[in-house]
């Protein structure tokens, strides 16, 4: 499937708030979803560079990173399009704009996400703990 990757614009906000809320509810089953808020999208992307994947002009995913550190904070795709290439397209587009090494943290219990990054050449560099659980720090040279 072909995805259109665009720079984030305010018009995308309502759809991405909903997408982020739904995707976390599906992926982070070990967390209490009652604490997830639609406004969490605004908080986690504040001050970051954000790209959006569109399918027929509708946002179906986003990636957000902090350019000074080449650190990806978020990569989420709508559950109904997961596994169809939107995440890969977003990751490629972001990496084309980022320096190296690029890094990200991925919760260890999110096995599909860990496998996604490892299959694309990311290497586990460290392990740590956060409020959401144990994580891997991954990097791409």
UniProtKB/TrEMBL annotation:
InterPro entries: Acyl_CoA_acyltransferase, Bact_Acetyltransf, GNAT_dom
Keywords linked to the UniProt accession: Acyltransferase, Transferase
Pfam family, one: Acetyltransf_1
Domain of life: Bacteria
GO molecular function terms noted in the UniProt entry: acyltransferase activity, transferring groups other than amino-acyl groups
PROSITE patterns: GNAT
Residue ranges of domain N-acetyltransferase in the record: 6-141
Keyword ATP-binding assigned: no
Protein's name in the database: GNAT family N-acetyltransferase
